[in-house]
């Protein structure tokens, strides 16, 4: 008989989280149960809580940036064992037999299971996943701050690796927040010349401290015009509509504008600049288990960690309000103070 899991859940869109308890049922043969030590808060948690994407079901237990210990493992579990410290991100399972999975692109599986989509996530004492998506955490990484790597981190790391960004490239990042600050750290360690686009003068020195070589004010049209033809790769981490044509103009020939920010409005883009400069627009969702492992190794090698603020899980509503207000610098992590 499974022990009850203690959690915090929302019972309707845009409602505060309340104490919640559920019994998960028998553990699957290929599943692990993770005792949650900490869990990051992502803007995707807010989107799910508010049902912005129309896929939320309630009661909803958010949380998909989990770090914890494996406390139970099914008989067919591989790669990890009871006692291992692991991380769990947006995905908790994938089919393993479709063309994307068989080619190593499990994050593109059409039936991939989201950790907080139709199931309960990591704002809880425990959470479950398929063993493949429970990534072993290197000892060199600080477990208390590592949670955001499993969503925010892999979201920006994956396109850098997938699209062959070179150390000789000039790269720009739009939005210096939860995702963008990690992108600056990765790209600086990657060897690129790094520019931060920011609309906030207060973030200029912070961006330089995080790894940017220079900054551009995204609200200054003259600065943006001067940047025309400058960048091999521009990474958008914001979820708001922008003047996309201005950023496309800032690309070199064969340059790429890539978005990981879930912009809800259609992108208004002129075709001719894309054609004449052979430029590209693309997007990507997180990364495969192998990509997560590569990112973690890269972080350990270069001592890369998210900049975090911590709250106890019992103060989750206060932490969510802090994130909603835009005050977070740069990721919020909940430490588990519930009974396991």
Reconstruct the topology from this structure.
Blueprint: E1 5-9, E2 18-22, E3 31-41, H1 43-49, E4 66-73, E5 85-88, E6 91-93, H2 99-102, E7 113-114, E8 126-130, E9 135-136, H3 152-162, E10 170-174, H4 180-190, E11 193-198, H5 204-210, E12 214-217, H6 221-226, E13 231-236, H7 244-249, E14 251-259, H8 271-277, E15 280-283, H9 289-302, E16 308-312, H10 316-324, E17 331-335
Parallel strand pairs: 10-11, 10-13, 11-12, 13-14, 14-15, 16-17
Antiparallel strand pairs: 1-2, 3-4, 3-8, 3-17, 4-5, 5-9, 6-7
Helix pairs in contact: 3-4
List keywords for this structure.
340 residues, 10 helices, six-stranded parallel β-sheet, single chain, Quinone Oxidoreductase, Chain A, domain 1, seven-stranded mixed β-sheet, Rossmann fold
Protein model, in words:
The chain is globular. Strands 3, 4, 5, 8, 9, 16 and 17 form a seven-stranded mixed beta sheet that branches. By secondary structure, the chain is α/β, with parallel strands linked by helices. The chain is built from ten helices and 17 strands. The longest helix is centred in the last third of the chain and has 14 residues, at 289-302. The protein has two domains: 5-151 and 287-335, Quinone Oxidoreductase, Chain A, domain 1, CATH 3.90.180.10; 154-283, 3-Layer(aba) Sandwich (Rossmann fold). Helix 10 links the parallel strand 16 and strand 17. Helix 3 (152-162) packs across helix 4. It has helices spanning 43-49, 99-102, 152-162, 180-190, 204-210, 221-226, 244-249, 271-277, 289-302, 316-324, and strands at 5-9, 18-22, 31-41, 66-73, 85-88, 91-93, 113-114, 126-130, 135-136, 170-174, 193-198, 214-217, 231-236, 251-259, 280-283, 308-312, 331-335. The model has no long low-confidence stretch (mean pLDDT 96).
């Amino acid at each position: 008989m499974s022990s009850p899991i203690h959690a915090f859940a929302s019972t309707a869109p845009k409602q505060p989280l309340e104490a919640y308890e559920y019994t998960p049922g028998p553990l699957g043969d290929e599943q692990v149960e993770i005792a949650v030590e900490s869990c990051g808060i992502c803007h995707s948690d807010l989107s799910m809580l508010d049902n912005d994407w129309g896929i939320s079901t309630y009661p909803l237990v958010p949380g998909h940036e989990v770090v914890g210990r494996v406390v139970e493992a099914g008989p067919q579990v591989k790669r990890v064992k009871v006692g291992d410290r692991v991380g769990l991100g947006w995905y908790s399972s994938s089919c393993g037999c479709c063309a994307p999975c068989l080619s190593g692109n499990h994050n593109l599986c059409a039936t991939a299971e989201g950790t907080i989509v139709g199931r309960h996530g990591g704002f809880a004492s425990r959470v479950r996943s398929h063993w493949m998506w429970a990534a072993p955490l290197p000892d060199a990484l600080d477990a208390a701050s590592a949670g955001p790597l499993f969503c925010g981190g892999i979201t920006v790391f994956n396109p850098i690796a997938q699209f062959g960004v070179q150390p000789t490239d000039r790269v720009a990042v739009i939005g210096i927040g939860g995702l963008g600050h990690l992108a600056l750290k990765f790209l600086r360690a990657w060897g690129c010349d790094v520019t931060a686009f920011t609309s906030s003068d207060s973030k200029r020195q912070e961006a330089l401290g995080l790894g940017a070589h220079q900054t551009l004010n995204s609200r200054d049209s003259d600065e943006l015009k001067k940047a025309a033809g400058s960048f091999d790769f521009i990474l958008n981490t914001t979820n708001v509509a922008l003047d996309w044509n201005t950023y496309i103009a800032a690309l070199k020939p064969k340059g790429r504008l890539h978005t990981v920010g879930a912009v809800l409005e259609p992108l208004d883009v002129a075709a001719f600049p894309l054609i004449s400069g052979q430029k590209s627009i693309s997007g990507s969702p997180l990364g495969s288990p192998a990509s997560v492992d590569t990112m973690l190794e890269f972080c350990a090698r270069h001592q890369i960690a998210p900049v975090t603020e911590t709250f106890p899980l019992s103060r989750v509503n206060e932490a969510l309000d802090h994130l909603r207000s835009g005050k977070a610098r740069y990721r919020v992590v909940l430490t588990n103070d519930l009974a396991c």
